Amino acid sequence: MRLALALFLLLAAQPAQAQLLDGTIRSDILDAAAARAAEVRNNLRIRQGGVLGLFGYNVTPDGSTNALSITRGTAVSGDGAKALTLSQFGFGFTVSEAFPLFLESYLGTARYDPRTYITGGSETRRVPMHWNNIAATLGVGYDIRLAEHLWLRPILNGSLGYAASDASLLGAFINWRTSRDISALTDQHMNVYGLGGSLVLAYYDYRPARDIEVELRYTQIRVQSFGDTPERIGGNSTARTVGLWARYRWPTGLEAFGRPLRWVIDTSASGYLGDQREALGFGWSVKVGGGIEFDIGRHEFGAMGLTLSRVRLIARYFYGDGGITGTSFGIGMSF
In terms of C-beta density within 10 A (0-12 exposed, 13-18 middle, 19 or more buried), how is residue 274 classed? Predict the structure, then answer.
């Protein structure tokens, strides 16, 4: 992990090389670093709402989970790193036909450069101060059957997340090693929680010759900072997303593990209607992919009452407005 800002502060504060004595950092270097960090912090301009806005993307469940890196024009950080990296992993399932309780769990991460600058007189210098997000979202819903293959699924969602700059992570490490709190570094963090819900209209049609799955989903989650989040970077944000996801599967004519091997086509489209739209820099995205699916149900792998039935290997192409593109490869599982 690059800790460019914090290293810059430490080195700029003391021309001489930092020395370690008995595993501790010299007190005068720590004092100088804290003073320089406070000076820099007073001149920082962080993209307003960027951290909370990206949390809106992290906490919104996506049926086509993926990892995405974005590098775009001036959005490239000063040290050459990716401007924005987004990932989400998760799953959802219905307990049983007799008891159609739906459960889902997702983990989203982000690493990004919030386009921070230090200004002094007529000079503007770029500061590579990256931030890191992690957010977990749980959902509890209920499947309401409308027709033979059509379901309505209301879901209640709750989220919990944490964000920290590279400088804050280094400050926490220094505090752990020396019991010395450099607040100018360690206060670059944010705790958030989110509450909201989703409404899903789903069409599932499974036949020996082919399987069709389609989900139209609207999600709204209100994200709020809390706890020891510094007041100057705290606040709230509302994420609103509408998405259409579809999957089509059919036999290849071959077998693997004693069961039919299937082709899979997977596609999704998302529109970002809330505050995450500005933070992401694009208002909609489309993912198209395909791959193969192995049926391993006969081997009865599983635990806690869940048996793994199918494993999918899928490659996807990502496209968003503003000319943003990307590719990803993922593994999907069905229980």
Answer: buried
As a whole number of angstroms, the distance between CA 166 and CA 168 comes to 5
- Measured CA to CA, the distance from residue 268 to residue 91 in angstroms comes to 16
Burial class for 303, CB neighbours closer than 10 Å (0-12, 13-18, 19+): exposed
Q: Where are the alpha helices (H) located in the chain, listed in sequence order?
A: 4-13, 27-42, 50-58, 166-178, 183-186, 276-280
- Cα separation, 156 vs 139, in Å, equals 5
pLDDT digits (tens, 9 = 90+) for 261-270: 999 999 999 9
pLDDT digits (tens, 9 = 90+) for 78-114: 444 456 788 888 888 898 888 999 999 999 998 887 6
Q: How far apart are CA 335 and CA 332, in angstroms?
A: 10
Phi-psi region of 40 (alpha: psi -120 to 50; beta: other; left: phi over 0): alpha
Amino acid 151: pLDDT: 97
Burial code (b: 16+ CB inside 10 Å, e: under 16) for 309-330 equals: bbbbebebebebeeebebebeb
69: DSSP letter: E
Q: How confident is the model at residue 18 (pLDDT cuts 50, 70, 90)?
A: very low
Could you give the CA distance from residue 328 to residue 334 in angstroms, rounded to a whole number? 20
What distance in Å separates the CA atoms of residue 255 and residue 5, rounded to the nearest whole number?
A: 54
Where are the extended beta strands (E) located within the chain?
20-21, 24-25, 44-45, 67-70, 84-94, 101-112, 117-120, 123-126, 131-142, 144-145, 150-165, 189-206, 211-226, 236-256, 259-272, 284-295, 301-303, 306-308, 310-320, 324-334
pLDDT at 187: 64
CB atoms within 10 A of CB 146: 12
Nearest 10 degrees: Cα torsion 288, 53, 159, 310: 10
Please give the DSSP secondary-structure letter assigned to residue 46: P
